[in-house]
Amino acid sequence: MPINVLFAAHEKRWAQYEAPLRTALDEIGVEYSLGTDMPPSEVDYIVYAPSSPVQDFTPYTRLKAVLNLWAGVEDAVGNPTLNVPYARMVDDEGLTQGMVEWVIGHTLRHHLGMDAHIVNPDHAWVPDAPPVAADRPVGILGLGELGSACGLALARLGFPVSGWARTSKKIDGITCHTGTEGLHDLLRQSQILILLLPSTPATENTLNAETLALLPKGAFIINPGRGPLIDDDALLAALDRGHVAHATLDVFRVEPLPQDHPFWAHPRVTVTPHIASETRAPSASRAIAENIRRGESGEPFLYLVDRDAGY
Ligand code: NDP
């Protein structure tokens, strides 16, 4: 009997994903039917994104797994009707590589002080060479798929890299911290701070008035993680008094960022519209198909969400 795969994401994604998903499913050699509309009681797998029309999983009585198209899972992780294995997206070739490039780009922008030369209306000749990477400690909050890949890439460029995670780890080239003390130690030394934590109750306002004050004066913040990781008012206050030199923010509590939000007009804030990285259809489709292959052959699913931890 063919397996039924429901693509339950925004319809514009269907146009992007239908062909790559068919190619990837063909490659794993299962008989399948793939579509955006099928009787719930006949669905085996749901490919899911936050804009999904499926919010109540109860009618999906033979569902084997929900496979998230994105890395972030905060929209569905607390859904009490989702009672089957729930996997998030890990897409090394697309999502991870894209995030590494975005983080490196924005880190180098601040490290090299590029803004002063790109926008220089007074034609000021200030020959202050930037420090080398070895003299610019970088901190990364979150050492998962994305945080560790970014950390390793920054370490390869010569930056001293520290990272913070929930559980302790050993990663060559990254000094790893855990716990509140570990967070505080990392913040005290990070001239550039990158946030790649998931949005969970435990990570909300990780950067607040108290923790922002621990950063060295003139630190830079880069947040491609999630908006709720930062207390917006505390960040604005730290920017206003120059304690934080600049914040590059890709993610916000409300998206699109409302036009009247002070971040838009703040001279020390760069807003990017949640584009740090994206799941890329061909590689993400292969990741989805691999989990379906595993489900069908009785192997454990990859990248299962820890429902208790919330990520
Ligand atoms: P992972 O789940 O692989 O990594 C999450 C990391 O955060 C882990 O190191 C984890 O610790 C750590 N962490 C979680 N909770 C805590 C806590 N309470 N205290 C300390 N550390 C904690 O996620 P990814 O790396 O794949 O993605 C990270 C986030 O990036 C996503 O959740 C999403 O929000 C965001 N993202 C943004 C995109 C964009 O375009 N802006 C694109 C894709 C993702 P441990 O290792 O111990 O579990």
UniProtKB/TrEMBL annotation:
Record-linked InterPro entries: D-isomer_DH_CS (IPR029753), D-isomer_DH_NAD-bd (IPR006140), NAD(P)-bd_dom_sf (IPR036291)
Record bears the keyword Oxidoreductase: yes
Alphabetical list of SUPFAM superfamilies matching this protein: NAD(P)-binding Rossmann-fold domains (SSF51735)
Pfam assignment, any one: 2-Hacid_dh_C
Record key words, sorted: NAD, Oxidoreductase
Domain D-isomer specific 2-hydroxyacid dehydrogenase NAD-binding as annotated: residue spans: 134-276
Superkingdom of origin organism: Bacteria
Entry annotated with the keyword Hydrolase: no
Gene3D superfamilies from the UniProt entry: NAD(P)-binding Rossmann-like Domain (3.40.50.720)
Name used for this protein in its record: Glyoxylate/hydroxypyruvate reductase A
Phylogenetic classification of the source organism: Bacteria, Pseudomonadati, Pseudomonadota, Alphaproteobacteria, Rhodobacterales
